Amino acid sequence: MPNDPILVVEDTAVNLKLVRFLLTREGFEVRAAGSAEEALEVLKQFRPRMILADIQLPGMDGLELTRHIKSNPATSDVVVLALTAYAMKSDEQRAFDSGCAGFITKPIDTRNFAKLIQQYLGSAEPVQHSSDVAMSSEDPQEVLLREIRESFTFDGARQVEELVKMKDDAFDFKAAKVTAHRWKGAAAQVGYPVISQKARELEEVLQHNGSDSLDRRQQLLADLSRLFAEARRPSTASKESESSRAKDPR
Asked: Which residue(s) pair with 51 in the sheet?
């Protein structure tokens, strides 16, 4: 139904901005929270019909948040969908076991996202989305994606340089893993598959945190520094985005 309230719990700014745009464009009332703890505070005054919760949140994760929501009589009837960068059967089962009605994998299919949300809300009304209408030369979604890409590559270039400058004995592995995880999901969403892959490899290396992984960590940071710099050049960003769409047409 128009103006259905939805709460989005997502700690990655790129994903949050895109999801908010896709939902508000369809007439949903959208609130946002950057953590599970913040979401629980929002729920004290806001009653959504649906909650979209990222599984990997800082602190309390999305599945634990779902269990809290479902165990509270005041919110137990709220539809919860898990947002996840994974598509493994075990993750799907964990989502269902926690009380999720389903899950949506990232990167999000922007053309079918609103329709999927309507289906979970039980709406029989057809949804008009980007694949149903003629695109103008300045389609709002394309404008937004361009702005998000610019912001992502600017922030990424700055963040990777901060990691490169960290001394080995003062390297913040916890913060670096969070940053790599965010790069991985955000880059895949906005059309930078190579950055996403390198960020995934960096996240895996940081999880091991062994002395033998130092050279690999430094190499991946150097690769990411170069990729972010290249992505900030319009022609390169355009080429990688086109390559991403060719591999995963939507």
From this structure: 7, 80
